[in-house]
Structures are given as structure tokens and as C-alpha cells.
Amino acid sequence: VGAVDVPVRFDARQSSDPDGSIERYAWDLDRDDDVDVRGPNATATFDEPGRYVVTLEVRDADGRTNQTSHEVVVRN
Q: How many angstroms separate the CA atoms of 53 and 70, rounded?
């Protein structure tokens, strides 16, 4: 849960790959299927109350990817 105009921080540093390492982190913060932030951390500020879905895709050294999404509820 977050508040309007208050930054929400996302942290994927605890993501892991059982047979190697994660090479890429790609965040879609506005559900438009475009990467908004690269790296293990991202920050988003939402200017309207509502429900927002943030998606993280990670790629490992072998080129395999995995994706997870999280819903953020923003209140006034």
C-alpha cells in the first residue's frame, strides 16, 4: 500500500538463480510492456489513487527469463 505522490521503492536484490547468476533486471512500472528501469532497484511515484501492477523480469547468464508481478494499492 502506498500514497499518492509518495515514492514506492522496489528491491529485487534477493532474486537468485540456482545454477548461476542474474544478468539483467527489467522493470515495467506502468503496464505498457516497455522497460522503465533496469537494475535490481526501481522507484515509482503514482499520482492518482488506484491499483497498479508492477512487473519485474529477470534474465540469467544462460538467457532464461522469469517474470513476477506485484499489485500496488495507492491511496490519497
A: 6
> Are the beta carbons of 41 and 7 closer than 8 angstroms?
no
Chunked into runs of 10 residues, the chain (76 residues) has average pLDDT values of: 93 93 97 97 97 97 96 96
CB-based burial of residue 2 (10 Å sphere; 0-12 exposed, 13-18 middle, 19+ buried)?
middle
Q: What is the pLDDT of residues 43-60, one digit of tens each?
A: 999 999 999 999 999 999
pTM of the model: 0.91
Q: Could you give phi then psi for residue 48, rounded to 5 degrees?
A: -135, 145
Measured CA to CA, the distance from residue 22 to residue 41 in angstroms comes to 14
Q: What is the rounded distance in angstroms from the CA atom of residue 60 to the CA atom of residue 52?
A: 27
